[in-house]
């Protein structure tokens, strides 16, 4: 069974909902199928924060993401991009076969907001 880390809509939400879950799921399952585990939340729409900056919401369980990568889960292309922005994997990581040896982030969970790219 190949496990993939990818983005999925939360159950019961419509197309207009912008919030996405980062999930570990069997690769053959549909996008909105029941995941093996929910690893975090990602909101791609930039929001204003308290200091007037515009940021995107990313809340992930870093240790669970590392666990799934360590047991051979393959991240999807958008997830590779997000994980490299959060410095959980090297920026030049390939689509498959990501090694955790060069990962340097140590907190157990990330509650960071990515800056808006122009």
Automatic annotation (TrEMBL):
UniProt keyword terms in alphabetical order: Ribonucleoprotein, Ribosomal protein
Annotated SUPFAM superfamilies: Ribosomal protein S16
A GO biological-process term: mitochondrial translation
MF GO annotations: structural constituent of ribosome
Region entry Disordered, spans: 99-118
Protein origin, superkingdom: Eukaryota
GO terms for cellular component: mitochondrial small ribosomal subunit
Sequence similarity: Belongs to the bacterial ribosomal protein bS16 family.
Protein name: Ribosomal protein S16
Organism this protein belongs to: Botryobasidium botryosum (strain FD-172 SS1)
């Amino acid at each position: 069974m190949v496990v993939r880390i990818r983005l999925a809509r939360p159950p019961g939400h419509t197309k207009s909902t912008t919030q996405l879950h980062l999930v570990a799921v069997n690769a053959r399952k549909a996008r909105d199928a029941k995941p093996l585990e929910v690893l975090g939340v990602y909101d791609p729409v930039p929001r204003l924060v308290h200091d007037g900056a515009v940021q995107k919401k990313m809340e992930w369980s870093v240790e669970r993401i590392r666990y799934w990568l360590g047991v051979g889960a393959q991240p999807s292309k958008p997830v590779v991009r997000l994980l490299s922005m959060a410095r959980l994997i090297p920026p030049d990581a390939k689509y498959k076969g990501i090694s955790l040896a060069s990962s340097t982030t140590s907190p157990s969970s990330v509650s960071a907001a990515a800056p808006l790219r122009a």
